[in-house]
C-alpha cells in the first residue's frame, strides 16, 4: 500500500471512532436527561408559545 492508501485508511478509522464516540456520548446524554427530567410545572400554558 502506498502513502495515499494509508492516509485514507487512517482517516476512515478516525471517522469510525469519531462516530462511535459521538453515539456513546449521545447515549449517555439521553440517560442523563431521562434521569433528570424537569417537573411538569415548567411546561405550563403551552398555548402562549403556540400563539406566537
UniProtKB/TrEMBL annotation:
In the UniProt record, does the keyword Transmembrane helix occur? yes
Q: Where are the transmembrane segments?
A: 12-33
Alphabetized, the UniProt keywords read: Membrane, Transmembrane, Transmembrane helix
Protein name in UniProt: Uncharacterized protein
Q: Which organism is it from?
A: Candidatus Shapirobacteria bacterium GW2011_GWE1_38_92
Lineage of the source organism?
Answer: Bacteria, Candidatus Shapironibacteriota
